[in-house]
Amino acid sequence: MSTAAEDGCFETKAIHAGYDRQSNADAVSVPIYASAAFDLENARRGDALAGGKLSGFEYSRVANPTVDALERRLAALEGGVGAVALSSGMAAVTYALMCVAEGGGRIIAPVNLYGASVDALGDFLPKFGIYGDFVSDINDLAAVEAAIGDDTKAIYTESVANPSTAVADIEGLAQVAHRHGIPLIVDNTVPTPYLLRPIEFGADVVVHSTTKGITGHGNALGGVVVDAGRFDWNNGKFPGLTGKELVISDQRAGKWESFVSSFGNQAFIKRIRIKYLRTFGAVQSPFNAYLQLIGLETLAVREKQEVASAYAIAKHLQSVPRVKTVNYVALEGQPTTDFAHKYLPNGIGTILSFTVEGDERNVERILDSTNVFSYVPNIGDSRSLIVNPTKVTHREVPADYYDAAGVNDNLIRLSIGLENVDDLIADLDQAIAGAY
Ligand SMILES: Cc1ncc(COP(=O)(O)O)c(C=O)c1O
């Protein structure tokens, strides 16, 4: 692997980073290592591999060479010290939140998260002693700071919210978090690392649903946790990272290690791999990792075109009869447009949402009469997609959060793909005009 590939620009790293052809029979494309387990070679090496002291492969529930290439590439693209790829975005979100608040604790988050993340923090993780403290505006830094208590373990936000596209003040949130000895965890799914790299603005952990723009073709599920490697976990708040841990220790020699003592600035990501992945087992398959590596190669060109089309469609919708509001904060005068300029100068992403006049029946007619847009609960596909969030992707969001979450029953979300933008606009125009 050449240094140029590792240190190059985004587009170069997206194609070359994290993969060494010479160790892979000179294969140009990353091979699919369809092997459940690997030869440990000798007893000493087996011990070191199983204890996490040696990097290499023993069993594909913990690490696999195809998945490893994806992890190294995503870590390089996000600017982290390490990454763990998982079987879905929700595995990445829940592993990161559980790892930081292990043993019980609270996490501050906005209500405008993806529906399953609201459900995780509001309903499900509380059953395991991890509680979400929801704020109505994550950019109200005074309110966020006021919500931090002794058992607060992290601030969690989406960089660009799905489906409102509101942009989080990552730098401001990181400063607040660090003042209180807690990390900032950012779900960077919507913009992808091409448009925004939260670690550059102080985030400590980045998670993605790689199902979306990173894979880019709607053909594989995946998630990733990326560790910035800068947070000091040794402040008494994170016993999971500083307490002694059998799996990485040598109990016969009485030599006990914690994740921090053993792995230093990689403590968090190693715990995700050696405890969470190894125990809960939401493993990324080598085949899906392969599809995601292929997707990454074209991420930059896809994002450029899709962002240009999304902007054109958002602008167009502003003048379409029956459309009441358009949410796309790259447009001037929207809430958080200033943060869009600061953090996402090349575009905020490929989703947008809009509300229409009338009632749910009008929404249903629009959904049922598009020909180019597919009615699909996904984003970041090369195909353009349309959905009604409160009935599908965000149905877990309690109705009293709707205003702050930027959703309601008249809201339609679009994910813009690679079709010709004129066809997309014509399709929306006929669907909206015919729905009344
Ligand atoms: C912002 C965001 N985070 C996480 C997820 C969950 O990802 P997955 O469906 O890959 O589990 C989604 C899915 O839509 C999402 O939009």
Describe this structure in words.
The protein is 38% helix and 14% strand. With 436 residues, the protein is α/β, with parallel strands linked by helices. The strands form two sheets. Strands 1-7-6-5-4-2-3 form a seven-stranded mixed beta sheet, with helices on both faces. A five-stranded mixed beta sheet has the order 8-9-12-11-10, with helices on one face. The longest helix has 19 residues, at 299-317. It is globular and about 75 Å long. Pyridoxal-5'-phosphate binds next to helix 5.
List its salient traits:
436 residues; alpha/beta; Aspartate Aminotransferase, domain 2; Aspartate Aminotransferase, domain 1; 2 domains; seven-stranded mixed β-sheet; five-stranded mixed β-sheet; 18 helices; 38% helix; globular; binds pyridoxal-5'-phosphate
Q: What fraction, in percent, of the residue positions are helical?
A: 25-40%
CATH architecture of the largest domain: 3-Layer(aba) Sandwich
Question: What are the distinct ligands in this entry?
Answer: pyridoxal-5'-phosphate
According to CATH, the fold-level topology of the largest domain is Aspartate Aminotransferase, domain 2
Number of helices: 18
